[in-house]
Here is the input.
Amino acid sequence: MVSLDGQVAVVTGGARGIGAAIVRTLAGAGAATVIAGGRETDGRALADELGGDAVYESHDVGCERSWDHLLARVSARFGAPTILVNNAGIYRPGPDVADTTPENFDEHYRVNQRGTFLGMRAVAGPMKTAGGGAIVNISSIASHRPYPNQISYATTKWAVRGMTKCAAVELGAHGIRVNSVHPGFIDTEMLDVITDEWNEQVLAATPLGRRGLAEEVAETVLFLVSPSSAFVTGAELVVDGGLAA
Here is the structure.
């Protein structure tokens, strides 16, 4: 059993889907866990379900001031975060590049890319002061192979992949490990927008022959924030059933 007793974890977009599975897993391992943003009714219900040191905090990942306020509230209640999981993200595929709107592109950038940058920036200082920490950025299989009608989403997930490696190199000397997780097609509401035909094609191309589970992504995150991965930083763990193999 992995123990995160004494750890303070912040999970963005932790109210449902993969984020909620991560929150349950980290809280189950003993971490004080902050559900940062996401649908408020879902986030508060999850915090009530878990009890103990699980709390919901309203949060806008794309806003620098919101990060300042979040870190102040978390530190006042639990102490400085020792774990950050940048999970918040949007996935809104559209037409091809010729007809993708700048608004669609900017919307993905603000949440998926800027939000991840601001999160790392917000916790890096406190983690340096504390002598270490663990950051996990949730990227996507879309940063490893192209899919049509996803230029906005894929661009941000490629950026998350690169930012993770840069931060790992910069922060390693301070005992801060930074890694990324790249889910494939995971059985959550986010995939409700894809067609049945596309889903069948993906399943046929996946060696394990099924969609992944949010809990399987969460267990990967748990490994990366735990002492079990003490010598792992700048790594990319793909959780896709072999789709990108």
